[in-house]
Amino acid sequence: MQLIQNLKQATANAIQAIYQVQIKSEQVLVNATKPEIEGDYTIVLFAFVKQLGKSPDELGNALGEAVKNSMPGTITDFNIVKGFLNFTISDQFWLDYIQSADTNQLITPTSNPRKIMVEYSSPNTNKPLHLGHLRNNFLGWSIAEILKLQGNEVVKTCIVNDRGIHICKSMIAWQLFANGATPETTGQKGDHFVGDYYVKYNDAYKAEVEQLIASGLSKEEAEKEAPIQKAAQAMLLKWEQGDAETIDLWKRMNTWVYAGFDVTYKKIGSDFFKTYYESNTYLLGKDLVDQGLAKKVFYQKEDSSVWIDLTSDGLDEKIVRRKDGTSVYITQDIGLAELKQKEFNTDASIYVVGDEQNYHFKVLKLICQKLQLPAADGIYHLSYGMVELPTGKMKSREGTVVDADDLVDGMVQIAKEKTESLGKVDDFSPAQLEKLFDTIGLGALKFFLLRVDPKKKMIFNPEESIDFHGFTGPFIQYTHARIKSILRKTGTAVHSIGTNLLPLEKALAMQLANFSAEVNEAAEALDPSKLAIYAFNLAKLFNSFYAELSIANAESEDKKNLRIQLGILTAATLKQAMHALGIEVPEQM
RNA sequence: GGUUCGGUAGCUCAGCUGGAUAGAGCGUCAUCCUUCUAAGAUGAGGGCCAUUGGUUCGAAUCCAAUCCGAAUCACCA
Predict the structure, then answer these.
(1) Among chain A residues 135 through 154, which have CB within 7 angstroms of nucleic chain B?
(2) In the prediction, which pLDDT does A259 show?
């Protein structure tokens, strides 16, 4: 659907022809005309009034006439109101569009497809996924789907933070308190099982610190001297030395966690083409430090630690190698960026990571650029805001973390209760029902987390749970199911669709025609919320249409055909838009 | 203190590449199921778009300052 683009181009051409002034088509602003004014699309004349030195009316008349004549059969009329040039599009244009639209090709693919990596999820192996991870996973998945929809090749990756002191804490606690218990013996999901020992570690640590303070140590000393903390540090050292027993335990506990993650990922629909483990990548980037030194990008201090000075870029000095020769977080990320580039040769790499790491990624990109790594310019940090509770941030210590599994199960349960109370799916089999509850519950949750601009922090109120009415996933799923229900009765064979359009029919066609452009916008901005909003508006519009006009009992055969076709297109568009959000739409609900 | 991001209806959010009377949803009130799925539709009510100044035909949108909130500025990851 190129209509808007064509209008811009025609306007630019007209200005060129009449006034010999070169205007880029992108400079022409085309809006949907206000409902109470006659017309379908509006061009704002003010932008050119001054530049061309003509009055809005004079300019409007000249442009209106020229554009109208350049698009015969498409534009039937124009008018000028207070500096706005309004064009009326012919019914025939929309009828042609409705008739020829192909549900298998709702999107015009991008002319320059790229290979793009999307890295998301990044779990820690010491605790289960929580609400924040869900936002990350849904965003990553959706971004990947949107880019694919546009015609790009997407490589989904995940970096697992499977090493470090926090893992050792869980391990120590397990050794101390578990008595050999395992997820199998307790029947607990592996990630929750390990997460519990992380909590137990913190409890024990806190108790030890308090005890030490009571025995006369200062708070600082106590925190340093707590035996369990020392044990964890010792264990990390052993791990790094490759101590067989430690590595064994580490592997064993990680296996439990991964088994748990797999269940969750499967449930919420996350997958990765390639998973990187920090235990394999944490030594990367060391050779790049030497290269950087040779290139004089980095410099060495007296204690032989290596730094980069970013003060001229408005940032600080940053260490890239410790004096003991070990690398730091940023170093391994540089190394990993290069590794990924070598393995996949992508045009761009999108990191879905929380906004608390904005500074880190700014530095990462800058350093990669200074090192002239091929990956550098393609690095893009998709920074998303935290999910907060009405009471403030989630804090594991205060037990206010919203667990991902619990939340998903809760949503599915609500979907079940709601669906059963409505009693519209009595003919479903138990397996179908289960699938439906999952679809609706997850749909509600995903939509809720994706409908907000990713970069903004959002508030989630677990008390109120998530609504199934209004601007929600189930509302759109319901609209889809409703259309499908009608189509099952009317059939989908369409012949003649008549020669005129009612306002609601036209509005629906216009909205449908926008889909491709909306996908492009969402892809460009890496913002699924744009698609969520689009899908909601389309569903809402269809529901108004549905309430006003009958499809099965339309006033004529032509009208029936036309509305069936509009129903087919709306259902297909909703399905595809939701699919790009990672949300399935049921045939019946 | 520096940097970055945010402040729009009671609540949660759109709108921000300047354009016509600032929009949704939830909540509140009212109306609509013997006819295609009421998880729906229609209507009412609700706003000094944080504040002040500037830019201009026109500012929620751009600029500056101020106030409030958040993140970050680790030899943690």
Answers:
(1) none
(2) 97
**Residue environment code for A172-208, b if the CB has 16+ CB neighbours within 10 A, otherwise e:** bbbeeeeeeeebeeeebbbbbbbbbbbbbbeebbeeb
Once rounded to an integer, what is the mean pLDDT over residues A370-397?
Answer: 88
pLDDT at residue A463 above 90? no
* A455 CB neighbours strand B below 7 A: yes
The CA–C1' separation of A39 and B56, in angstroms, is: 28
Residues 6 or more apart in contact with residue A349 via CB below 8 angstroms: A116, A117, A119, A337, A340, A341, A375, A378, A379, A380
Nucleotides of B under 7 A from a protein CB: 2-6, 11-15, 19-21, 24-27, 35-42, 57-58, 70-77
* Residue A494 confidence class, pLDDT cut points 50, 70, 90: confident
Distance, CA of A139 to C1' of B72, in Å: 22
**A97 CB closer than 7 A to any strand B atom:** no
Burial zone of A495 (CB within 10 Å; 0-12 exposed, 13-18 middle, 19+ buried):
exposed
Q: Where in chain A is the domain with CATH 1.10.730.10?
A: 404-580
What pLDDT does A71 receive? 94
pLDDT of residue A408: 95
**In the numeric block, which tokens belong to residue A155?**
């490589």
β-pairing verdict for A41-44 and A153-160: unpaired
Residue A491 approaches strand B within 7 Å at CB: no
Which regions of A148-301 does DSSP assign to beta strands (E)? Answer: 153-160, 274-277, 299-300
Rounded Cα distance between A122 and A277, Å, is 10
Å from A84 (CA) to B43 (C1')?
30
| Separation of alpha carbons A292 and A372, rounded Å | 10
Mean pLDDT of A155-174: 94
| Higher pLDDT among residues A315 and A272, named by residue | A272
Position with higher pLDDT, A325 vs A104: A104
Every domain of chain A with CATH number 3.30.1360.70 lies at 3-89
98-117 on A, CB < 7 Å from strand B: none
Residues 414-453 of A with CB under 7 A from strand B: 415, 418-419, 422, 424-425, 440, 451-453
**CB A532 within 7 Å, strand B:** no
In chain A, what is the greatest distance between 2 CA atoms, to the nearest angstrom? Answer: 92
pLDDT at residue A311, as a whole number: 87
CATH 3.30.930.10 fits A404-580, yes or no: no
| Among the ranges given (A87-101, A140-154, A310-324, A534-548), the one the predictor scored with the smallest mean pLDDT | A310-324
d(CA A132, CA A141): 14
Global ipTM: 0.96
pLDDT band with cut points at 50, 70 and 90 for residue A469: very high
Distance (Å) from CA A431 to C1' B59?
56
Separation of CA A410 and C1' B30 in angstroms? 34
Distance CA A11, CA A134 (A): 46
> What's the CA A86/C1' B31 distance, rounded, in angstroms?
35
Q: Which nucleotide is nearest to A80 (CA to C1')?
A: B20
CATH number of the domain at A3-89, please? 3.30.1360.70
What is the distance, to the nearest Å, from the Cα of residue A408 to the centroid of all Cα atoms in its chain? 18
